[in-house]
Amino acid sequence: MEIGRIHSKCHKTLLLTMMMFKWGIFCSESSDRCLSEPCQNGATCVDMMDDYVCICPRGAEPPLYMGKDCDQPYDGCVFADCPECTSTPGTRQFHCACPRGFAGPNCTFNIDDCESAPCEGAGPQTVCVDGIDAHFCICPAGLTGDNCEAEVQDCSAEPCLNNGTCTARPDGFRCDCPPGFRGDRCEEDVDECLSRPCRNGAICLDGPGRYRCFCVPGFQGYNCEIDINECASHPCENNATCVNEKDRYICECLLGYSGVNCEVEIDECDSGPCQNGATCHDWVGQYTCECPPGFEGMDCEINIDECASGPCLNEGTCVDLVDGYECDCSDTGFTGEHCEEDIPECASNPCLNGATCVEGWEFYAYAAGYLCQCQPGYTGENCSLDIDECGSAPCQNGGSCEDQINAYACTCMPGFTGVDCEVNVDECESAPCQNGGLCEDNVAGYTCVCPDPESQGEILPWGGRHCEVRLTGCLGHACQNGATCRPWVGEDGRHGSDCLCPPGFYGEFCGTPTTFSFSVPGFVLLELPLANRSRRSVESGDVSVSLRLRTTLPDMLVFLRGDANNFLSLEVVGGGLLARAVWEGGALEARFMELVSDGTWLDVSMVTAEGAGLALVLKGGAGCDGDGCRVEEGVGIMTFDPAPGSMTRMFVGGVPEDYFDIMKSRSGFIGCVEDLMVDGRPVLPQDLPPDQTQDVQMGCSKTEWCHPDPCSGQGRCVDLWTHYKCDCHRPFHGDSCAQEYPSWTYGHEGAESFSAFDVPAYHGSNFSVSLFLRTLQQDGLLFQLRRQGAPYLSLFLRMGRVLAAVDPETPPATAPVFVADGEKRLVEVEFQHGQVFFRHDGMRYPLGALSEVGVEPGDLVFLGGLPEADDADLQAWGGHFKGCLQDVRLAGARLDLDSWNSSLEEAEEEGYLPSDAQNVELGCLSDDTCQVEPCQNGGECTVTWNDFVCSCLVQFTGRTCETRVWCFSDPCVMGGRCRDLPDGYECLSNATFGSDALRFKAEGSLVAPVTSVSMELRTRTAEGVVLRAELGAELFSVGLQNSSLLVRVRQANSVEALSFASRRPVADGSWHRVRVSMVDAPHQGAGSTPSSFSSPWVITVDGWSEGTSHVPFSSLDFLGSAPVLVAEEFVGCLGNVRVGGIYLPFVDDGQPPQPFRFIRVDEGKDVQLGCMGHPVCLSQPCQNEGTCMDLFNQLSCSCAPGWEGPFCEHDTDDCASQPCLRGVCADLLAGFRCDCPKGYVGDRCEVDVDDCEGHACQNGATCLDGVDLYTCVCPPDFTGPLCQWPYPPLRCEEDVQCENGGVCRDELWGANCTCRPGYAGDRCEVEADECASNPCRNGGTCLDRFNRFQCVCSPGFIGRQCENSKWEQRDRIPWLVVAVPLGCCCVLLAVIGLIVMVMTARKKRQSEGTYSPSQQEVAGARLEMDSMLKVPPEERLI
Q1: Rounded CA gap, 367 and 359, in Å?
Q2: Which of 1218, 1188, 1190 is nearest to 1200 (CA)?
Q3: Residue 1050: which of 1067, 1029, 1076 has the closest Cα?
Q4: Which domains does the chain have, with CATH numbers?
Q5: CB neighbours (10 Å) of residue 63?
Q6: Which residues are within 8 A (CB) of 837 and not within 5 positions of it... i.e. 6 or more apart?
Q7: What are the recorded GO MF terms, alphabetically (predicted)?
């Protein structure tokens, strides 16, 4: 209800704001929409721009109203967020009927299904997990079931059949079957023949645990795997090999024999193998050839090569003959029989142009005996060729090259300089642009880009070639309609301006509007005269039309230029654009498939040109970037070539009817057009023929029909420019989708319902059935087609899913979606020639195939059931349907029981009339499910749709409040967790014991036989007594011995106690579930078990059978009267101790009402609740950041990586496991490092480095990887370490010709070219790239030149490699300026020092040998005379 108040306040504020805006700003116009007083029930009408709004009264007293005209009673459920809401009309009261599992005012609270502790019957270790209207229990070991109520079956029942071996597991048992059997219990005999053990076509016969093979002839053995050996009789002769095969043998003869048994000796000379006249000699299995002179080989086929010894000298060519040879000394410079005589070639002065001739065969045999060493600038064998340095085209940027001797000269084009004209002269270096203009360097020129005046805070912009002139052309400009003024200044200094018009305007000052629109279909015919235009350009295909358009309709013609046989057209087809160019010799189409009919403006241009085909250019369309989209067809292939004079007519907005057949869309244009240009000339709406403008409106006026949504949120609004329509979502209909087809209730209050319809039309075998349904009943007939009283197609529910069938005996097609959940569901089933498809939530599911059926006139349709006469057939389809059906359709035709009362609009749809109906109610009604008062114990019943919810009192629970909640009053006041029982409650708790026993008695309340004792325990004590009871001679105890369980039993008729123990220890500090029970418990009623009935007893620990008594004994009924001592001599924790299924409470449980229970008889004794062990981790015993884990009276240290030991005190030696496959292991903290030998990598040196990766083997050689090396396996025609040299070696002149003046020399591995400076490559064929080493520094650009490089430095740097900074040199102080003054200062100081030394020395010499009393007085009266120089004798007398 608060939501309603907020909603009302927001509406009032919004309306007040809108009213102030309207009355304060647009007072020039008023509306009279409120004059008709549309608002009802005292509402206030507020006039808006194009509408009115009613402000409904919001008083505290009902009735309240809502709706556009305040004519509808207020519905509080509109603002409530719950699935099933009921409200009191006219008030703000509402009620939410919550689905199962939820509660609260808005059904947002998930009910805790674990609150009733459904899992706690299995003890405190059971965990309950809450779900939505459900829960599940996480069971401890040994228990299973929904509520952990069942014990896991073990091997004590001997479940394995056919001698299978039973192995106990935590979740039950596993049967290990003997050979020949399988299955969970070894119950299935294995068919050994399935594995086809019999071989070689044998027949397999299966038996119990075995099989038998019947062999075909030729085989034997158990599996017929042995082939009978036909070679046993040794049929092959002459040492031939006998090969045994299936039912036969083959003889493989030795060389020289043939025949079936190799009995025939072969004459090898019969084939004449010896060649070149040799004589053949036959032998056994072979032959020999006697060769004539000059031949050799097995068949004398090899002509002996007399040249092999190399008899020809000085590179003479040896020609092999039969039994001889001949030396060819041509081009060697030598003569003689063996080319041994040298010919003096340099005597004839063969070298030209001042070249030096070098003669000698030792080094230059390849050059016919001499070598010419050319002067620079010449090349060739005789240095006769002047090298053309201009051949490599060194001059760049159009410079002309002049060849010189060993040089060239470049004459550069204007704007370029440099040796090779490679430097573009920077005309901007002189900074010609003024007033902040940006200089852009061009070739032999520059351009000044003047600054924007706004960026400089100025009004007038700068202009002129150097931005030196203030542009005043736009002062007081006349540009209109938001056009942009662009000033300019002419070469004569005259100022002016141009107007850049916005879309929709034209003219010198943009004062002429170009926008016009069509609101009804029509067209305008334009005559396009050829005056002032090139007739040839129009008739040779150079045609263009451009415009801007805006529309919302998907199919219509924009324009057509031409006639019926030669035209250029633009259409909107399917929301996209289609441009067509058609002429008598061909046709072109350009399509833009994205949506353009979205109501926004779109720039469109169509261009045809000679050889360019057809181009469609768009700007502003969906999927187009800032540059727009371009679609081209026939580019470079076809030219639009219309007939002469055909392009002088143009239809805009439509065409006459006789043109419809050539159009894709047959509708005229509805929308707006502006900026229409034909062949570059504007077409203005003011210039249109007056007699054709009756369908044309100036400007573009458009109402936004779909904003706000007029379809009530129940459909899709389609804008049709002049109006709109709503495509309604089912089951809504009407102009604004505000009406809903009614629902019909079948089976209301248990009635049997059906409706029938006649089918008047033919639908064939391709049809669909669709309907809305709402039901909670999982079975029932939905839809059935009948012909002549028999059904041939049925849709029905089974287990909540939709099924389709042709008859009860044929398997149905089943939909994969559950629909019987009480929600409204749309069901759509399609039938296509027998194939069935199901649609749900946008997915289409194939359901398989049924027999093909067809719908014909005269058939009957039944909904929801069948008449009483056909009830016998109804059970096959699930009986009568109970629920609601809405908007049922067969092949699009609606089946409506209320079709007689339908509106005129509904009557326009195809629909079928009902022929019969029974017990069908209008609307979707619910049964009064609370009528039978299902809620017990004072629960309040609330009706939900066809269901009910019981609101129980706090002390009851269950669907019908049938279960008493004893724990509601929290009776376990002394502690413990309360658990409800059918007839009472229990207070469950764990407790810690230290040999302080508790005493319990049942006081005879146990009437059922005691066949089990169970407990949960946790201890590390190896010895002790957990439970003991004794009455007279009878005794039962459960204790610990050597950490295992020990059970002792003595019955009244026994002398000694029977003992049996568990195999597995339990004193390990973990919780264990222990159960001691009879293997075969009696099934008689309580108290009626014969005392003679006995059975073996078994110890079960965590669901595993751990020990069985060898002697059977009866139930422990005496425990119902005997005192039971718990934890008499036991140190540890206990929880959930039960005798005969009855709980032994550790604390006072407040006198629960159940009749069968144990009570404590030592009530004054305190019990330490909870399981607490000694705080072993309190002293933090784990070192080196280890984590201490308390394991109940024992600790364990989880060490940080790299540490080990009980207290993490030892550094782990990670190298101890020898992790390195190769190399040396170095131990690290929490890790290791492998130092790998060469050739290996990886964390463990496990990867052999593939040295062949990136290998240098050449000429198709194969690389073989080794350890830290690789080997190249060369093909036959190459050799060398990298297979880089041809084999046999190439020879100069004969095989190799060095290019670009390179010198060829024959070396060990063949010819080698020594290249001139500036060239490289095997044949000196490549000009060396001196820029490859990046010699230019500081961002300089390297230009490759012949045998050198040139650096084009970045601004601020100079030098051959741009290594020097201009600014450093400019700012640097010359060294002389510092050195000269500094030197002068040093000389002056030296002179002064020398003068001081001379003066001091002179003064000292003058004072030697004289007596000066004054000096002695100054020095002091105690001056020692020994320190004085002795005076001369003559001075002593004074």
Answers
A1: 9
A2: 1188
A3: 1029
A4: 2-96 (2.10.25.10), 155-190 (2.10.25.10), 193-227 (2.10.25.10), 230-265 (2.10.25.10), 389-422 (2.10.25.10), 438-500 (no CATH), 517-698 (2.60.120.200), 710-741 (2.10.25.10), 743-922 (2.60.120.200), 925-963 (2.10.25.10), 965-1083+1092-1169 (2.60.120.200), 1233-1286 (2.10.25.10)
A5: 13
A6: 829, 830, 844, 845, 846, 847
A7: calcium ion binding; protein domain specific binding
**Which tokens go with 1366?**
């201009």
State how far the Cα of 484 lies from the Cα of 500, in Å rounded to an integer.
5
pLDDT tens for residues 46-103? Answer: 877 678 888 888 765 778 888 888 888 888 887 777 778 888 888 878 888 888 877 7
Separation of alpha carbons 522 and 520, rounded Å: 6
**Whole-model pTM above 0.70?**
no
d(CA 240, CA 262): 7
Stretch 919-948: mean pLDDT:
94
d(CA 329, CA 315): 8
Counts of helices then strands in the chain (DSSP H, E): 9, 123
Q: Which residues pair with 1129 in a beta bridge?
A: 1025
How far is residue 182's CA from residue 195's CA, in Å, rounded to a whole number? 15
Question: From residue 1112, how far is each of 1079, 1109, 1115 by CA, in Å?
Answer: 9, 7, 10
**Whole-number Å distance between alpha carbons of 846 and 816:** 10
pLDDT for 1423 equals 34
Enter the tokens of residue 1313.
Answer: 């070219």
**pLDDT at residue number 121:** 63
Q: What is the pLDDT of residues 1130-1158, one digit of tens each?
A: 999 999 999 999 999 998 777 888 888 89
- Tokens 């003559």 — which residue? 1434
3-state secondary structure of 1312: strand
R_g of the chain computed on alpha carbons: 57
pLDDT band with cut points at 50, 70 and 90 for residue 1373: low
**Cβ partners under 8 Å of residue 120, min gap 6:** 126, 128, 977, 979, 988
Tokens matching residue 533: 């235009």
How many Cβ atoms are within 10 Å of 690's Cβ, its own excluded? 6
Alpha carbon distance 738, 576 (integer Å): 32
Furthest-apart CA atoms within the chain: distance in Å: 182
Helix (H) or strand (E) holding 18: helix 2-25
Residues 6+ apart with CB under 8 A from 770: 730, 826, 827, 828, 829, 887, 888, 889
From 139, 142, 172, select the one nearest 155 (Cα to Cα).
Answer: 172
Q: Is the distance from CB of 1271 to CB of 1246 less than 8 angstroms?
A: no
CB-CB neighbours of 811 under 10 Å: 9
3-state percent breakdown (helix, strand, coil) of the chain, nearest 5: 10, 35, 50
Predicted confidence at residue 869, as pLDDT, reads 67
Q: Helix or strand or coil: residue 965? A: coil
Q: Which two tokens stand for residue 1370?
A: 């400019």
The span from the CA of 885 to the CA of 468, in Å, is: 86
534 pLDDT higher than 60: no
- Identify the pLDDT of residue 863: 96
Q: One-letter amino acid identity for 46?
A: V
Q: If we measure between CA atoms, which residue out of 363, 388, 392 comes closest to residue 377?
A: 388
Task: Read off the pLDDT band of 205 (50, 70, 90).
Answer: confident
List, for residues 517-527, the tens digit of each pLDDT value.
998 888 999 98
| Strand ranges (E), 341-387 | 341-342, 356-359, 370-373, 378-379, 385-386
The three-class DSSP label of residue 1196 is strand
In one letter, which amino acid is 1147?
Answer: V
Helical (H) or strand (E) element with 1320: strand 1319-1320
CB 1131 within 8 A of CB 1007: no
